[in-house]
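Issue 218. Parser rejects a valid record. Input:
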Amino acid sequence: MSIIWAEQAITTSGWDRDVRVEIGPDGRIARIEAGTKPEGQRVGALMPAPANSHSHAFQRAMAGLSERRGDGPTDSFWTWRQLMFRFLNEITPDQVQAIAALVQMEMLEAGFATNVEFHYLHHQPGGVPYDRLGEMAERVVAAVETSGIGLTLLPVQYQFGGCDQRPLGSGQARFGNDPDRYARLVEEAGAALKGLPEDAVLGVAPHSLRAVAQSDLRKAALLVADGPVHLHLAEQIPEVEEVQAAWGARPVEWALDNLPLDARWCLIHITQMMPQETEALARTGAVAGLCPLTEASLGDGIFDGMRWMDAGGRISVGSDSNIRISLAEELRQLDTSQRLRDQTRAALATPDLSTGRRLFDAICAGGAQAAGRDSGQLAVGKWADLMALDTTHLDLAGLQGDTLLDSFAFTGDNRMVTDVWSAGRHMVREGRHIRRDDIVAAYSKAVKSLRDGL
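Output the parser choked on:
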């Protein structure tokens, strides 16, 4: 049993003062009591630590390397993708493990308790499987053994280079599996997870409408009973046009009519939707997996957050390409993009909830749903996924309740995060991961050899 005492904390009854939290040996919250005397681990402001709902860990090693224009008159997501494919020709399992551990460490230091890894790098360069089909999944799991983060592992199904079912290009060869081999991959990924603590989760991820046959999109959800199902959807205008030309419907329209969308599903990006699509998709109970910093970096477009949330839609945030891992900055980018588009302020606030509070509550609940994880609340019986903010920080000092959350979201960065627990594992202390030095050293070695080869 470990004990945390907080000056203020968000519980299911709202903000409470002088809160004592007991974490059981199983990693779940055993008891919460307000109005207590200080004891145990003392922190300033305590709250649920959300899940990072969408990550491609290996792309962290590309951060800063794709900011030059290509040969054509304009640069875009599609030209960026070609650089990513070239990068993939070099990366090894050892490097993937080192990069994933750094990503997971940075997520924890940013305030995230869980890594939902959309894992599509499966095979050797050229597409030949490793001796163990799940080799790369095992490396993500090995990284977790070092970082201590919660993991929802989503092996990705990737069959085709487009809706016309053309073969995968050379840059995509490491991703590809037919349905039978994909089912074996999911099984091997599940076996790898058994070496982690009980909070690890297995899901599935048909990559996109472009990359998977229509019939197999429907079958993917059956491979893991009750586990989360993630799908890239309606991210780019050329993608919308390709699906519409091939299948006779826009991506969201087709998904609404043909997929069993419900609370198990997390739809990634959905930055290219018509108003009626936004409202209808929100009503399914699926989560919008938003990655505002990456969506801005890749020129995806702006998610229709006001319409989605007003329709009762659920949201989560992820760091996707991991060009920058920051919970506060993802929240800020999400809201300020709405302000820029609509020339307004406090776009996502309501008469009852400030911007920071509404967004934070939403991503905690939506992130837990997207991760298939029993978390998202500071409540007895939930996984002890917790983050603490520094109430002595210059921009937080003297602030209480929702105003403190607003200041974190709109003035903050990772330096405000002092402590993070993942299923009771106290991995960040005084703003620093407990294994930071070893993780950074391994990453630096991996990246040097990668960059020397580019």
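Fixed in the parser; the record now loads. The longest helix spans residues 93-110.
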